[in-house]
Amino acid sequence: MNASVKSEATTSASLVVGVLVVQQFLGALTFPIAKFGLEFIEPFTFAFYRFVISSLVLLVVVRMRKSGSPIARNDYIKIVGLGILIIPFNQVAYLYGQKLTVAGHGALLFATVPIWVFVAALIHLKEKFLLRRAVGIVVGLIGVAVVMVTGAIELGTEYLLGDLIILGAVIAWAYYSVWGKPLVEKYGALRVTAYALASGSALYFPFGLYRAIIFDYSEVTAGAWLSVLYVALGVSVALYVLWYWVLGRRDASNVAVYHNIQPVVAAAVAYVFLSEPIGWSFVIGGVIVLGGVIITEL
After folding, report:
1. In terms of Cα–Cα distance, which of 15, 65, 49, 25 is closest to 234?
2. Is residue 211 included in any domain, yes or no?
3. What is the pLDDT of residue 1?
């Protein structure tokens, strides 16, 4: 490999890692920002506005660009399937599951995303099994557990249904990632994300519209609407497009381990902006998570 090609490859790899880190920071900021908005807007109404805004923005951008090869009919069906995974089975299921369990359980269950992506990628994408990647994923999960477990886990059968629903949402996200990868490589991250979110949002629209109509808006603040805008544009538009963009350039199992950065950053953000306490478990767990990421990149 000559010097120019090697330099280009290094730059490209650095760009992908940079995008992954930015993507995880966007996700981490979601927790405190959405938490604020949800104090004024009930979850299913919040989700309705989020999905409508993000779908419209993405479709307008795709329309303005007018680029790329036509999407085959059978691939449209696959993209609709992605929409079903990401909206009803991931986002809506997660909101409902959170009502039936405690917040710490949801965060810890979502930390298992890299494991499910790793397994699904081996089965469906025939990705090569790499021991260091498997070790890195497990190490990262241990780090997240150290960060989250103190005071976050409560044992009891009353939380089982909620935990199972959230686990289903986690697996839905993993398959949204893995099954979407070939389509992203073929049509690009923007179009696949736009059409997937639009189709999933269309399915959610009747229920979401009903919740939005019966909701009492008398106590909703401007800050709450800004929260909706951030989650719609910062997460459903920017974060989702960046996620698929990276998946088009890296193995799914390699990308997924970066997901473990998110709860660590979220805890740090909550400490700075919400004055939520953190202790030595956060520091130790954060170092372990970083170690897991480094192992997968060796």
Report:
1. 25
2. yes
3. 46
Asked if residue 92 is part of any domain, the answer here is yes
103 lies in a domain? yes
* Domains of the chain: total: 1
Which residues span the domain enclosing 169? Answer: 21-130+155-253
CB 94 within 8 A of CB 166: yes
Looking at residue 185, its amino acid is E
What pLDDT is stored for residue 98 in this prediction? 74
pLDDT tens for 11-39 read: 477 888 888 888 878 877 877 788 788 88
Question: What's the whole-model pTM score?
Answer: 0.82
What's the one-letter identity of residue 273?
A: F
pLDDT digits (tens, 9 = 90+) for 100-110: 776 666 666 77
Please report the pLDDT score of residue 39 as a whole number: 87
Cα–Cα distance for residue pair 225/221, rounded to 1 Å: 7
pLDDT band for position 6 (50/70/90)? very low
Quick one: average pLDDT of 208-217? 96
| Three-class HEC string of the chain | CCHHHHHHHHHHHHHHHHHHHHHHHHHHHHHHHHHHHCCCCCHHHHHHHHHHHHHHHHHHHHHHHCCCCCCCHHHHHHHHHHHHHHHHHHHHHHHHHHHCCCHHHHHHHHCCHHHHHHHHHHHHCCCCCCHHHHHHHHHHHHHHHHHHHCCCCCCCHHHHHHHHHHHHHHHHHHHHHHHHHHHHHHHCHHHHHHHHHHHHHHHHHHHHHHHHHHCCCCCCCHHHHHHHHHHHHHHHHHHHHHHHHHHCCCCHHHHHHHHHHHHHHHHHHHHHHHCCCCCHHHHHHHHHHHHHHHHHHC
- Residue with the bigger pLDDT between 271 and 73: it is 73
Q: Which residue has the tokens 């929409």?
A: 83
